[in-house]
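Hey all, sorry for the wall of text incoming. These are the two entities for the joint prediction.
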Amino acid sequence: MDKLFVIKIGGNVIDNEENLSSFLQSFASIQSNKILVHGGGKIATKIGEQLGIKSNYINGRRITDDDTIDLVTMVYGGLVNKKIVAHLQAKSCNSIGLTGADANIIPATKRPVKEVDFGWVGDVYNDQLKIDNVQLFLESGITPVFAPLTHDGNGHILNTNADTIASSLAIALSKDYDVRLIYCFEKKGVLENVNDENSVIRNINKEKYRQLLQEQKLFEGIIPKIDNAFAAIDAGVKEVLIGDAKDLLKNTTDETEGTLIN
Amino acid sequence: MDKLFVIKIGGNVIDNEENLSSFLQSFASIQSNKILVHGGGKIATKIGEQLGIKSNYINGRRITDDDTIDLVTMVYGGLVNKKIVAHLQAKSCNSIGLTGADANIIPATKRPVKEVDFGWVGDVYNDQLKIDNVQLFLESGITPVFAPLTHDGNGHILNTNADTIASSLAIALSKDYDVRLIYCFEKKGVLENVNDENSVIRNINKEKYRQLLQEQKLFEGIIPKIDNAFAAIDAGVKEVLIGDAKDLLKNTTDETEGTLIN
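and here's what came out:
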């Protein structure tokens, strides 16, 4: 099977013009099939404040009301997404900017209301992705760039976690490609000692993970990321890499930086 | 050759939710190949005012400065474009939202500075459209929806007239399709008497046009539209229709409302 990289970047890359430009240079030079998924970054909050749209949080989680979904549709689906596409074109990477609504690639449903109504937030229908349309682009040499938005099939755009979009795409495409899913974040990888950037654990398999959990060595915030990584692997993704976007080029060869989970 | 409709809508459709919904219903039900090109509407001006972005005009023409290109990239490429796509998906029309930067479909250049620097405004390279990528979508049953944005190949998005985008696409696609280019506007067609909506001229060919110009019957504002229509026809487009979006369904059969130019 052909190799495919599904790479997710978040605020620490998007919010800094220099980081973004250097990341996109590395990304554009990847010769294999590749997909980019970006989060939103701080720009939506900034523009939202200027527009007088208040961020509402319940239990620390943001609520996507009518104004907020319009805001993120503009900022994630328009400003951030199309800027990335224009930059990639300038680096001779023929890309196409997409949301999950485009070509109906990522159908989702508004998150059911239990204790909290999160508003226009999407839960992806993992078994309904129109993945043949993604393959159509890849086979035509066009690199998809996804904003963290999906749709409900009833005319509404839904705000959707970028990590989820990346793993949903990676899983659906793992039937036809050897998928390496790469989560770029602000650290060099999973650290044995959270205060020491040089303590990156190079490889975590399930046995090693059990051992690390028993030893209670892991920083708490990293545990859901590792759980998600194993969920992706159990669903067919070949390997998941967690690390710093700056190490990206090394992360697309057999030599890797960061933490490889498999 | 297969039929293809390239349909352009402007503010009078986009700015009114009811008009837009009814238009999209008609559009979705067109069985032939189709492409939608939308303008911006008043929403960009409104959001721009809220963000404190001033509209600058020189000789009555808007200048697209740094803030304004970000604004229209957000609003046209994100908010308006993705809302249309989500609505079309709900009407079972599998669509994809695009700018000219996506899949490098419409390369352009920043308008050269002569007396006036219009800022980030694009002039389309008509001979460089990557039209095979548009055909890829059409052949896969995916309907392209274009925002009025192109790119310069150097990483910049460019604000570009929606009428121009529609005619550039129509011309480039006329090699492979029988193209009917439809400009929706606020009147029922070209009027013999600008004050009488019932005086629509059903058909204008070059001879008839010469005659109308001699008789000085035409409303001045319509003349550039008719000139553009004949330019498209001279470049290969089969026919151009000018009329009201409400008559759209009739405008996709042999019976037409509006003014057919050929």
